[in-house]
Amino acid sequence: MISRKIDQKNIDRAKALIDAAERVTIICHTGPDGDAIGSSLAAAHVLTAMGKDAKVVIPDSYQDNLRNLPGAKEIVDASKYFDFACRLLNETDLILCLDFNEPRRTGRLAEVLEGSSAPKILIDHHLDPGLKADVVISHTDMPATAYLLFRFLCRLELFNLIDKQAAECILAGMMTDTGNFAYNCNDPELYIVVAELVRKGADKEKLNNILFNTFSSNCLRLNAYAILRKMELIPEIHCSLMVLSRDELNRFHYTRGDTEGLVNKPLAIPKVVFSVFMREESDCIRVSMRSQGDFAVNDLCSEYFGGGGHLNAAGGEFYGSLDDAVAHFKSKIPEIRKRFTSKKLNYK
Ligand code: MN
Q1: How far is ligand 1, taken at its centre, from the CA of residue 180, in Å?
Q2: Which end of the chain has fewer CB atoms surrounding its CB within 10 Å, N or C?
Q3: In angstroms, what is the span from residue 14 Cα to ligand 1's centroid?
Q4: Looking at domain 218-342, which of 3.40.50.10260, 3.40.50.300, 3.10.310.30, 3.40.605.10 is its CATH number?
């Protein structure tokens, strides 16, 4: 048995909305990852098993490897079928919002989502939920939305409707957001859930290959290039800085997701406490930071790059050239250095 985390009032209200709905539209965030896609597909499988007409809508495209998850072929991609996606959001009895906190996280669909008169249930683990929903189930201590969704389904007494396919999708979400149980993974109940999902037939070995061991040759070469040629160590602030320009990305035929996880790699080096990765996109410089111990990168991202996130994983943006973004970051070195001298930080 696992503990009860979700408020009973929310369970009751969500149950009433689901019972009353014939058509359910499920939506997640832009650039959907394994947790967004996994949660959405799992919900669709269970709702379909309940006899509902459940459809998954995504704002834009996702990584190729996730197309191997059960049910992925039925997903409606709004970047290809925008009108159909809008119709599914407007002409439905219920919208299930998974793995995002703010309407703007659904990109072009934000306006339609907010404008739809259908009742909404939000299930998410990001900070500060800003979406107006009839039921908000937001647990920032949960490592993955898929894990929270499993708990939600159990509380609705739908455990028996989680079949092999749904189990695989839930496990995919949990594996994605914990880096295959490498971080945010010290909740013992995670492994009780994994055991239940594997018992239902989820093939963890297959998922491992789909999620963590499928790369194009270009992607492998790009990551190797970034580490070999572009990783700059800044010992005075225990930092690694990696930067990739548009030209460099193009050289390796970059597609979305190709640099996923790259920012974590330098943390393997003893004495590197935080890692910064900057990627030149068409409209801005995308900044990602990862850290270990109690060195907070969400502060750095919000102060210097108008972003935020979690203590050890955060991101932001810079509007200007890549060189200016690097110069901007480096101008903060003395300030960052003070963090290491002013308080005793706990890191490896
Ligand atoms: Mn997630």
Answers
A1: 13
A2: N
A3: 20
A4: 3.10.310.30
